[in-house]
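Model: Ready when you are.
Researcher: Fold this.
Model:
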Amino acid sequence: MSKDSRIPKGRVRRTAKIGSVLGRQGARYAGTKARNLVRAEDESKESLDQRHLEAASNMVEVLGQMKGAAMKVGQFASFIDTEFIPEEYRETYQAQLARLRSDAPPMPWEQVSEVLDEEYEGQPVDELFESFDREAFAAASIGQVHRAVLLDGREVAVKVQYPGIAEALESDLGNAGLLVRMAKLIAPGIDAKSVVHELKERVLEELDYELEAQNQRTFARGFRDHPFIVVPDVITRLSRRRVLVTEFIEGVGFDEVREMDQEARDRFGEIVFRGTFGAVYHLQHFNADPHPGNYLLMPDGRVAFLDFGMTKKLDVEQIKLEQRAVDAAIRDDPEELRAALHDLGFVRDPTKMDAERLMEHVKAIGGWYIEDREVEVDPVVVMRMIEVTHDPRSEFFELMRQESIPAEELMGRRMEMGVVAVLGQLRAKRNWHRIVREWVYGEEPQTELGRIEWEHFEAMGVERVPGLAGRALG
């Protein structure tokens, strides 16, 4: 194994590697700024442009080599507009970080072969597959994906886990407690022990591709014959703990979709919204890790949903509480909203919480779908959502200190943040509120996609308000 392909496993080494690149680039940036004081304007700008490009490229290289949770940070950054970076350099960082979605440093074939040999207990690959591409065509945070052909001629995608990633992820998660303790400075009511347990459980589940295969089969059944959503079938007999084999899907990636016209982006965004938020209601199960690399626009207009390593199942009672909270926000009922969020675990002591101020906070977070109007989800909406939920400088900071983050809701909030970030990159425009009303009140769909989706579900015997026997809140 070459030095460059080896994943750093220790927490100190992995933290130090990120710190060194940031520190090194910071020093070089400062040096460039100083030298620019005595350079001609055009020359100094060119030099500074080059420094930013080098910094972004270096970040990609380091995060890509580290993979695991560290790479997830880079992937997340790659589809949230980084407003903390000077405006004229944001596109440079976005373009470089976007490589983490599909062009991470590859694992050499020798390592791939080693994993396949161990998982297939020495049975040669050419006895299991008609052909197997040695070059990966896609990267994930804990593995990479190869094209292959089965003995019966079917094309498949084979995801192979990086050797040593389990130890690396566990090292990353060793810092989870520190991160949550820092979060307690913002929300002292947080149950740190439960949140850390939930976080570790969900992330470590990603290491078990057999569990991911089980999740993917559940979603594939739930979306079988769906008019615009496709979940690839799992090839169970060839899938193992570190190898996942699924049907291969031809499609256009997210970066190409972003370049399409407004109508195409709006349609794609609505499909992502229905496939993620909607799964909560008609499957009681959702993908907690949405990001652009998980979606492909197929030639027939359907969208393939990929990667089910981190999912969360909900019981009907929790979904009812979610609907009750959304209903209260929609009806502008602060007292009922406070009570619903208390029952969900977000408000520990309702007697100490200003209900009107809480309503303002909820609308600042979810106004894009609470308000009954067409909303373009753009980077401003995304950054505002991040600000009012995470930033100590926010006008809601004191309120945040009275709120909590229940462990059971952690993945739901992650999903919501991921979806709004995807929509923000698309600048997708819809009356999202009217779509939400389908799930909360069982109302008739207002979009063409909604109408054909519910025709499909009703043909399968699914209730208009799934999981609640058609009960409307009124």
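Researcher: Now this one.
Model:
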Amino acid sequence: MPVRRRVWFLFGLIAILALALGACAAPVTAPTDDSGSESASTEAAATEAPAEESEGEAAAGDAPTIALVYGVAGDGFYITMERGLREAAEAAGVNAVADGPSQFDPVQQTPILDAMVARGVDAICIAATDKQAMVEPMQRANDAGIPIISVDTFVGDGDYENGPVTFPLSYVGSDNVEGGRIACNALIDNMGGEGKIYIQNVKPGVSTTDQREQGCREAIEATNGAVELVGVDYNDDSAAVAAEQTAAVLQREPDLGAVFGANLFSAQGAAQAVANAGLTGVVRVANFDAPEAAIEDLRNEVVDIVIAQLPYEMGQKCVEYSLMALDGNADEIPARWPTGYVEITRDNVDSEEAQNAIYSSN
């Protein structure tokens, strides 16, 4: 026998002898009835406990997951919307997840939406970053059997009953045409019913801000020439760009009366340019959306009017309509649910209504 095989043979023989000796040395005692029943109950408890835990885990896992894909991260509007979503989901005993791009951009938002589909969420609420570019990605999610609800923004023309895009179950959001009209009517009143207005906007193709601009234009047209629209610029969601553009308009139009900022960054940039020109309080600025920063600007007389939407309510409706769809009641969901506005000025900023409308930053 080769040496290596002899060595392994000896090791095996030693192991067998050790096991045999151990078995002979082990004490053998007959268990009493008491110890036997205690052992049995302990064994049963040990086997039942994991079963109960597994059932609990299964129950949590069986709860549907509702996803929110918001427009841009770090925005108080969407933070408040997510809070409404999560609190409504907790009250309903369901799961909630939320994510969104670092910029209001369909190229960045599409993979986040795709990831929610791959994750297997049960319903998706989405603030589409472009009313055309996001149609196909949202259609893919719908084709995967996931109910889709628009929040804040829409795709197509927003008419989900008769328009070109009808697969989303509902569009939950403000009447942005009316919001733009409210903001610019307030500016016109502050100007004494006549003068010049300039619009600072984000970029064409965003449903909400397109409509706010439309509402402002309608308010100006309703003055029958008493108020003149001197221009519209698009800042690509950059306050710095908005400040540069507004500064150029102030140079060109020294008698400018007011600026309508179609979103937070538009208004922030416009207000900065007005302040830099020493025209705070002379050139009125309206800010659409009411994060804490906008309220601070209002108190400091940097802006004069803040138009607050109701994003918390949008988050709540997301959960309500998602559960209706998952319960087989999609036909009971309205294709359009408009939320209202709160107009905040320095006169009413401390009222309960205004305070409840301010967007949370966390």
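Researcher: Key takeaway?
Model: The two ends are 78 Å apart (CA to CA).
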